[in-house]
Design goal:
The complex is a heterodimer of chains A (430) and B (270). Chain A is of the alpha/beta class. Chain A has twelve helices and 18 strands. The longest helix of chain A has 29 residues. Chain B is mainly α and 270 residues long. Chain B is 47% helix and 3% strand. A two-stranded antiparallel sheet of chain B has the order 1-2. In chain B, strand 3 and strand 4 form a beta hairpin. Classes of the chains: A alpha/beta (430), B mainly alpha (270).
Chain lengths: 430, 270
């Protein structure tokens, strides 16, 4: 619940006879949750989405806490993954998930189902959903003038849209990794990974193996700095991989991933091929005047796991809450300081999570010995418990210090052994 | 007719504007992805008028601007050497040299590899396990699999864990030889340093060890050798240090903007 302390400064003008108008550009999880929170807060909200039935390429995994925090109904979850298999470069396979209780799971969703549910819910609270493509914005002349948002409106009947414009007081850029809003505010570039995925329909008896199990393949053949995956979807599996530093070779990595999973997906038919960029870190500038970026547009994807849906929805909500609070439920004009409140809250709350995942990626995706050590560590029950607790509930849980020490010692031991084996093999060939 | 320049992206990547490029309303509005667009944008507004369309396309045809790199070619803000370490596995940059894929090559086979793990019995002779041979076998297996990746199989899973080899076997095989070398180097340098100091200052070895300055130098020397064992280590440490803080800098970039252009402060309540 938003607790409002009205700290709106003396210098922000009270809006006469109208509510604050905010445009949310992009109707994915970030846009949908931002629009819902804004509409609930009494702000006149416009949610722009260019393709209302867009089936986005995406891993589609949501943590357990998202279901609770965003009141998601159970029927939008296609599958509840309760087991994971981590497979090292030398095919050492480790089963992860023994520590989960029967209420804990990773939800697999179809993006078109989730996105439209969140948009419809935002509309039910009063947001106006506009089927349109954002083109550009005109900056305001002063701090009380509105932004003029130019867009192409589609009326659903013809393919050609009508150019239109809309005056709004603030804009939330939730339009994804290739964000136009970000370009318009000179937000800067980020490093990004290319994720490449093939949807494969496999025979039923092979599909039974993936009933509630997802696989993660690590290895230099599969990706130089990420992992390959097999995620079960509603009635097929998604086999994919990603990379940041070797994008032109992504097809080679995809072939290698398919080969590693060959036994388990044999006889399958590729029904769809898709690719999308994944931001690696936030853009240099996430807020400018009365425009803020959320979700993938801001670059809120974790390292190591590449998780983005939950953070997109959460950042949309936090940004909207900051706007609601700063405008005293839509009565006052906001300025950049209100949007920076959202940034400060976000950075304070989630920086530890992002940093820990960054350290894990740098440590364990570095080279094949590191990946071998990583898979070895995953066999440990304490590691599994800590990993799942922090993933499912998004809190860094402080464990028992003695166990932490044991874990540190074991990690170092695994890494040392793996690197020793590798160095010895290099010596043999040198 | 306006020329539409599409980026060379594979058709799999959907850019939000590319799907609208094929629609142009009759009255000359709509958005055109022109190459000259960036130049026009520098003035802050994209003026979509009929004249500009013609200018833009004329400019595009006359001036051969370099094609914008496709998303598959763009590496973000860093590439090549600079990307090394920013995201892991610099080995990948060298990986192109190694043949990583071997389709239909032989599977890994070894008489001592049974049921997804090394059969320790086969390494035992006269009651003692030859752990060195186990380590050698595992090295060979990993090397083979790195160059000839195999499909992971459920019917024949790999369950070998390196911790089955006891810690003292690791120490004896890997740590002791290197420790011997480092201690040898330290002893040689120490002997000559002590000799030179003695001849220069007349302070004997016992007095050198007793002095605080001597102890301090010894401490620095020992830690230095632990951290920098080879010449490359000095560079590695520097890279590690910058790598450690790189992600932090990327996150804090947005706050640097604020320092340069401070906004009028409302009371910010968290």
């Amino acid at each position: 619940m938003v607790v409002v302390r009205i700290f709106a400064g003396m210098n922000s003008r009270k809006l006469e006879g109208r509510k604050l108008r905010v445009a949310v550009v992009g109707g994915g999880p970030a846009g949908g949750s931002a629009a819902e929170t804004l509409a609930k807060g009494g702000i006149e909200t416009f949610l722009f989405e260019r393709k209302l039935d867009n089936a986005k390429p995406c891993g589609g995994a949501i943590p357990l806490c998202m279901v609770g925090e965003f009141d998601l109904p159970q029927d939008i979850i296609d599958r509840k993954v309760t087991k994971m298999k981590m497979i090292s470069p030398s095919n050492v396979a480790v089963d992860v998930g023994r520590t989960l209780n029967e209420n804990e799971y990773i939800g697999m969703v179809r993006r078109e189902v989730l996105d439209s549910y969140m948009r419809d819910r935002a509309a039910s609270f009063g947001a106006q959903v506009i089927n349109g493509l954002y083109l550009r914005m005109e900056a305001p002349k002063d701090e009380d003038s509105p932004y003029v948002l130019h867009y192409t409106r589609y009326d659903g009947k013809s393919k050609v849209g009508t150019p239109s414009k809309l005056e709004v007081d603030a804009i939330v850029g939730a339009d994804g990794a290739n964000s136009r809003v970000a370009k318009d505010i000179d937000a800067g570039d980020y490093d990004y990974a290319i994720a490449f995925q093939e949807r494969i329909k496999i025979p039923d008896e092979k599909m039974a193996y993936y009933e509630n199990l997802a696989e993660m393949y690590v290895g230099a053949d599969v990706s130089p700095d990420f992992y390959g995956w097999v995620f079960p979807k509603c009635d097929h599996v998604a086999v994919g991989t990603g990379t940041v530093i070797d994008k032109p070779a992504i097809k080679k990595y995809q072939t290698a991933t398919r080969n590693r999973a060959k036994d388990k997906i044999e006889g399958g038919k590729i029904i769809r091929v898709e690719a999308h960029p994944i931001p690696e870190h936030p853009r240099p500038r996430r807020v400018k005047d009365r425009v803020a970026l959320v979700g993938d547009a801001a670059g809120y994807v974790t390292k190591c796991s590449g998780e983005g849906i939950y953070f997109a929805a959460k950042s949309g909500r936090m940004c909207a809450e900051a706007i609601v609070e700063g405008s005293a439920f839509g009565q006052r004009m906001i300025n950049e300081a209100d949007l920076r409140t959202y940034l400060r809250k976000w950075d304070n709350k989630y920086w530890p999570t992002y940093k820990v995942l960054d350290i894990l990626q740098k440590l364990f995706y570095r080279s094949n010995p590191a990946r071998e050590a990583f898979v070895e560590m995953c066999a440990d029950e304490y590691v599994q418990k800590m990993t799942f607790d922090s993933y499912l509930y998004k809190t860094v849980v402080p464990g028992n210090p003695l166990d932490d020490l044991k874990l540190a010692v074991n990690t170092i031991g695994s890494l040392v052994r793996a690197y020793a084996l590798r160095n010895e093999s290099l010596k043999a060939t040198a | 007719m306006a020329t539409l320049f599409q980026s060379a992206a594979s058709p799999l990547l959907h850019r939000s504007s590319s799907s609208c490029c094929s629609w142009l309303s009759a009255s000359g509005g709509g958005h055109l992805k022109l190459k000259g667009e960036d130049a026009v944008r520098r003035h802050g507004r994209l003026v979509v008028k009929a004249e500009d369309e013609r200018n833009g396309s004329a400019a595009g045809e006359v001036v051969a601007k370099p094609r914008k790199a496709s998303p598959l070619q763009r590496g973000g803000t860093l590439s090549g050497e600079e990307a090394e370490g920013k995201d892991p596995s610099p080995a990948a940059l060298l990986a192109n040299k190694k043949p990583l894929m071997s389709l239909g090559g032989g599977m890994f086979e070894d008489a001592r590899w049974k049921n997804g793990t090394w059969d320790i019995q086969q390494f035992t002779n006269s009651g003692r396990v030859d752990w060195d041979a186990v380590i050698d076998a595992e090295i060979a297996r990993r090397k083979w699999l790195e160059e000839n990746p195999e499909a992971s199989s459920n019917s024949d899973p790999v369950v070998f864990d390196t911790s089955t080899v006891p810690w003292w076997a690791w120490v004896k095989r890997f740590h002791l030889p290197e420790a011997e070398i480092l201690n040898g180097r330290a002893a040689m340098i120490g002997y000559f340093a002590a000799y030179l100091i003695d001849s220069a200052t007349g302070v004997g070895l016992v007095d050198q060890t007793n002095s605080f300055f001597g102890k301090l130098l010894l401490f620095i020397a020992v830690t230095g050798v632990l951290l920098i064992r080879k010449n490359e280590d000095a560079n590695n440490l520097k890279t590690l240090a910058s790598e450690w803080t790189f992600y932090d800098k990327q996150w804090q970039a947005t706050w640097k903007n604020e320092e340069q252009h401070p906004v009028s402060e409302k009371e910010i309540k968290l």
